[in-house]
Structure formats: structure tokens, C-alpha cells
Design goal:
With about 300 residues, the protein is of the alpha+beta class. The chain contains six helices and 16 strands. It is globular and about 50 Å long.
Length: about 300
């Protein structure tokens, strides 16, 4: 499909994902192009820009077109000299091999995320992205009605598997150096589209008002709809690619299937607002504060 501003949008998944062809992210973009990219993002949830070969400055410039940037992470250090960039380095034990939405353990998770490939393995190392709006729509009516009423507690401090080496142990120590616990609606209303989506993922650990066993069972059921193959697109990286995804309506997963091979991405995230449930109630911080040092969003 061609747009009015001249670039092409090529769907790469039935329910999620499109490749944007004909846009050079290394130059200043016309506001009309930015508006069409944002509209495409809202429709397709995840956009792939192939072979852009941006540096850090280019990635920061592009991400900032969608709003004010967060710092790299609430607890993990940034790239040296780049406070807004998180290094996703497989060699350092940073392997996000669990389904999650970025930084949902704080009250105002990012609006959108950008990932840029710098070093990619010759095999494996893909990123899977799932459409959580389609997952909600797939729920049978009784489960949808139940999910609409539930709230989940998200935290960065939970029972992790034993670290495989010292690098992984050190990264985990940094990750949980400050504990956050936040209550979010299980069903989030998207602030731009009004769509309802399941807002759960790996940081969601318990359901308010239920015990650990019931919480795990319910979250497992809801999560199984997010990760249905129909709702997933797989991005196979090549160096220089950039992926933009809507953190309000997706989850993602990076399979740890590339052994000891190097894999390096840089992540830049755009500040978001507090999720809102179907009754208009906004998320609330339970422990750790609002992470104001991480996100400038005040909503």
C-alpha cells in the first residue's frame, strides 16, 4: 500500500507488523510523513525500517518525533554518555527471553519503543512481537468481562531463574537494585485509538484480590491469548534495521537461541502516560515511587 506522502507500507503479518519502504530516517522528516508513520504504527502496532544504518544521534532524533524521551531505564545504567539509550547486549546477559511490555513495573511505562540492530548473529536472535489488542478481541465473552474488572500488580522483583554466569548475576542485581510495584488494569484503553488490549506480560505477577495460585492461573490463561501464533510477527534482524513498536498494545520476546554469538541492539523509549482501565481509573504506584527520574510523563 502506498501513502499520500510517497512511501510504501508492506504488511508482514496477518494481525501485526508492517515494513516501511521508501523513508530515509537519517534526514529530517516532513511532519506529514511523521503523521503517516504514526497512523501506520497505530494500525499495525510494529513497524520495521530496513537497512537505515543510523547512529545513536539518528535513533534519538527519530524517536523524539513521537514525544519526549525517557532515560535509558529506571535501574539499569545507560550507554556511556548517552542517558537515553539502553544497550541490549546479549554478551552482558541482557537477554529478554520472556514475553513482556517494556517497563510496566512503573506507573507510566513507555509509549513507544525503538530498537536498532548494531550486531546480529548469523542465525537466531530474532524479536517476536505480539498484538495484545487482537488477544483481547480473541477472548470469549465471559473471559473478556472478567478481564475488564481485574487489576494486576507488576514488579521488577520476582523469582528469576538462577543466573547462568557472573555477568547475568550482575545485570540482575542492577535490575532489582530498586524495587517497583505498580497496579495496572488488566485491560488497558489505548489513549489514541480507544482500543482495548490485555496489559499484562512478564512483569505482571499477581491479580489484586486473589492469591498467588489463582493469580498465576488467570494470568497464564490471558497470556495464552496474547502469544497465539496468529497474533505474533517475527522480526529477523539485519545490521542497521530499526523497529518501532507501540508499547501500549504489544508484548515482545527475544528468544535466547544464538548461543555465545554476539548480539547488540540499542533501545530508545518515548515517555508514556499512566494506563487507564475501561472505567477511567488510572494506574497507581504501590512501591518505589513514580520513577520520575526515568520518565518525564506526569499523567
Amino acid at each position: 500500500m502506498s501513502t499520500s506522502t510517497g512511501f510504501d507500507i508492506r504488511r508482514i503479518g496477518g494481525r501485526i507488523g508492517a515494513e516501511i519502504v521508501g523513508v530515509d530516517l537519517s534526514v529530517a522528516l516532513d511532519p506529514a510523513i511523521v503523521a503517516e508513520i504514526n497512523a501506520s504504527l497505530l494500525e499495525h502496532k510494529a513497524l520495521v525500517f530496513r537497512g537505515q544504518q543510523l547512529g545513536d544521534a539518528g535513533q534519538l532524533r527519530f524517536a523524539s518525533l513521537f514525544g519526549e524521551l525517557t532515560t535509558a531505564h529506571p535501574t539499569v545504567p545507560s550507554v556511556d554518555g548517552q542517558p537515553n539509550i539502553l544497550s541490549v547486549d546479549g554478551d552482558e546477559g541482557i537477554r529478554a527471553n520472556h514475553w513482556h511490555t517494556d517497563v510496566t513495573f512503573v506507573r507510566t511505562p513507555p509509549k513507544v519503543s525503538t530498537l536498532r540492530s548494531i550486531v546480529v548473529p548469523p542465525y537466531g536472535g530474532n524479536t517476536l512481537i505480539a498484538n495484545s489488542v487482537a488477544a483481547y478481541q480473541d477472548l470469549p465473552e465471559p473471559l473478556r468481562e472478567l478481564a475488564d474488572r481485574l487489576w494486576a500488580v507488576h514488579t521488577n522483583d520476582y523469582d528469576y531463574a538462577a543466573p547462568k554466569n557472573d555477568k547475568v548475576a550482575e545485570h540482575r542485581k542492577q535490575f532489582v537494585s530498586h524495587t517497583y510495584r505498580t497496579a495496572h488494569p488488566v485491560v488497558r484503553v489505548h489513549p489514541e485509538t480507544g482500543e482495548r488490549g490485555l496489559f499484562i506480560g512478564g512483569f505482571a505477577q499477581t491479580i489484586e484480590g486473589l492469591g498467588p495460585s489463582e493469580s498465576r492461573d488467570l494470568l497464564r490463561i490471558f497470556q495464552s491469548y496474547v502469544t497465539r501464533p496468529e497474533n505474533i510477527v517475527r522480526v529477523a534482524w539485519t545490521p542497521g534495521d530499526l523497529v518501532l513498536f507501540d508499547n501500549r498494545s504489544t508484548q515482545h520476546y527475544a528468544p535466547d537461541d544464538y548461543g555465545d554469538l554476539p548480539r547488540l541492539l540499542h533501545r530508545v523509549t518515548v515517555a508514556g502516560d499512566a494506563p487507564v482501565g475501561i472505567d477511567g481509573t488510572a494506574s497507581r504506584a504501590l512501591e518505589g515511587g513514580d520513577a520520575g527520574h526515568y520518565t518525564p510523563a506526569a499523567a
